[in-house]
Write a structure and sequence with these properties.
This protein is α+β, with helices and mostly antiparallel strands and 344 residues long. The chain folds into two domains: 129 residues, no CATH class; 165 residues, Heat Shock Protein 90, CATH 3.30.565.10. It contains ten helices and eight strands. Helix 9 runs antiparallel to helix 10. The longest helix has 73 residues.
Length: 344
């Protein structure tokens, strides 16, 4: 029935004069049929008008239904009730029947209109539910796809680490940190205009805060963050977070030996068509005589920067410390991270 009503309603005119004209036509045709069947229905002057009122109220609106009730009452009183040809009902019983019919007719018109509105609301809710289900299915598909790629990336990083490091603790620690970055991304994931996005401010500030609480401890090193709020694609956020995590943890490991005091600052902002991540410290700088780890972190960061279609520059500052700058195209849609593993 819903499909029938939808097809009928879509083909009917919306102008008020057209609705009222069709109402008059339908009631008039019903009166002609009733007149033709007068010999059979002479005791039932209102019988054929009731379905007409219901159909009109269902197809149009309440006012059209009320007009149908009024017109059918006029036709019944004029043609089918005594005395004929007058808008007056002589018999008290007929008058009571006429009043009951008018009340019933207005109720049928209002009920049909309410039924039509309820059907439209139900159809709208059904369409919205179908759209929401389709959106959820798409989001789940994308998240599963991204999780698969992220797990492949972690596996590739572990394989690379296993081939370069003889210290298992370093491998496990690095993997835990990168999995933590993924967890922060998924916690802050939201969907806008069909795209899974992450707020850079919420994500990176929480990352810095977690590093401060977990790694700095009692050391005299301050870690700060100044982050502009930019919507990042989920894959981009994973890459940016991994690079930021690697840069800050490297600075904490190597820039401040022997409890040297200092500061690490992270900034992220949009500069024209690029997003720029900077991590600066005022530590001892890059010292050739001091080992800086296995080099695995640097390879991972460079590979992620390449997948972002950007570049990562790490250099000593003129006075002291190290400044790392990541630049990549700042587009939420096209600038998504490639699906391939981070380490080949």
């Amino acid at each position: 029935m819903d499909n029938v009503l939808r097809r009928l309603s879509s083909g009917l005119p919306r102008a008020a004069w057209a609705r009222y004209g069709i109402t008059l036509l339908l009631v008039g045709l019903t009166a002609l049929v009733r007149y033709a069947l007068d010999s059979l229905l002479f005791k039932y002057p209102f019988l054929l008008f009731i379905p007409t009122i219901f159909v009109i109220g269902l197809l149009f609106d309440r006012r059209s239904g009320y007009l149908a009730v009024a017109l059918s009452g006029l036709f019944s009183a004029w043609f089918f009730m005594k005395p004929a040809g007058m808008l007056w009902v002589a018999e008290p019983g007929d008058r009571l029947a006429f009043l009951i019919y008018m009340g019933l007719g207005f109720g049928i018109a209002g009920g049909a209109h309410a039924l039509r509105r309820a059907n439209e609301q139900l159809r709208l809710s059904s369409d919205q539910l179908s759209a929401a289900n389709a959106e959820k299915d798409l989001m789940l598909h994308e998240i599963h796809h991204r999780i698969r790629n992220d797990l492949q990336q972690i596996c590739a990083q572990l394989m690379l680490a296993a081939g370069k490091s003889e210290i298992g603790q370093d491998i496990v620690g690095g993997a835990i940190e990168r999995i933590g970055v993924l967890a922060r991304v998924y916690v802050r994931l939201r969907r806008v205009e069909g795209v899974n996005i992450v707020s850079s401010r919420d994500f990176l500030e929480s990352l810095v805060e977690d590093i401060r609480l977990g790694l700095v401890g009692e050391r005299p090193v301050a870690v700060g963050a100044e982050v502009e709020d930019v919507d990042l694609d989920m894959g981009v956020a994973v890459a940016v977070g991994t690079i930021a995590n690697e840069l800050i943890t490297n600075a904490l490991k190597y820039a401040f030996p022997d409890d040297r005091p200092g500061r690490i600052d992270l900034s992220f902002r949009k500069e024209e068509m690029e997003c720029v991540l900077r991590v600066c410290d005022d530590g001892v700088g890059i010292l050739a005589e001091r080992p800086q780890g296995t080099g695995l972190g640097g390879q991972i960061m460079q590979q992620l920067a390449s997948q972002l279609r950007g570049n990562l520059d790490i250099r000593a500052q003129p006075e002291h410390g190290v400044k790392a700058t990541l630049r990549f195209p700042c587009c939420r849609g096209p600038a998504r991270l490639d699906d391939g593993p981070a380490a080949a």
